Amino acid sequence: MAFTKGNTVGFKKGRSGNPGGRARMPVDMRELVKANTAEAVAVLLEVMKNKKAPDSARVNAANSILDRGWGRPTQSVEADVTTGLSPDLLKVLRKDFWGFSAKREGCAE
Q1: How many alpha carbons fall within 13 Å on the CB side of residue 10?
Q2: Are 63 and 55 in contact (CB under 8 A)?
Q3: pLDDT at 59 over 90
Q4: Domain assignments of the chain as residue spans, ordered by start
Q5: Distance (Å, rounded) from C-alpha 12 to C-alpha 19?
Q6: Helices in 1-109 by DSSP H: which ranges?
Q7: CA pair distance 12, 20, nearest whole angstrom
Q8: How far apart are CA 44 and CA 36, in angstroms?
Q9: What is the chain's mean pLDDT, rounded?
Q10: Are 68 and 41 in contact (CB under 8 A)?
Q11: Distance between CA atoms of residues 102 and 83, nearest Å
Q12: pLDDT, mean of residues 86-99
């Protein structure tokens, strides 16, 4: 049950508010979108090139065109990955299972 005005209970504990997940786009809608792709791109190009359009609209149109033509830029992720394993166990794993010595490979022990 969704949380609405007057509902003091809210969602039931342990239950999703949307158990079915996001609704799928109907096939006929997908076909309609595909059939109008060229016109949509033409509108984006028109907005992008329109000097009287707000800068934000022009930038959004340009980004949309670039994203669809070249794909979205890759995102870099900075992570600090630690194994949680003891240094002694890591030495054994490196030597016996991974087949290299940390000293030989220039790794920190």
Answers
A1: 4
A2: no
A3: yes
A4: 27-70
A5: 12
A6: 27-35, 37-49, 55-70, 87-92, 102-105
A7: 15
A8: 12
A9: 80
A10: yes
A11: 16
A12: 78
Higher pLDDT, 102 or 47: 47
How far apart are alpha carbons 54 and 51 in whole angstroms? Answer: 8
Q: What's the pTM? A: 0.46
Extract the tokens encoding 37.
């792709």
CA 53 to chain centre: 30
Question: Mean pLDDT lowest for which of 4-8, 48-52, 72-76?
Answer: 4-8
30-54 pLDDT, tens digit per residue, is 888 889 999 999 999 999 999 999 9
Token pair for 31: 């076909």
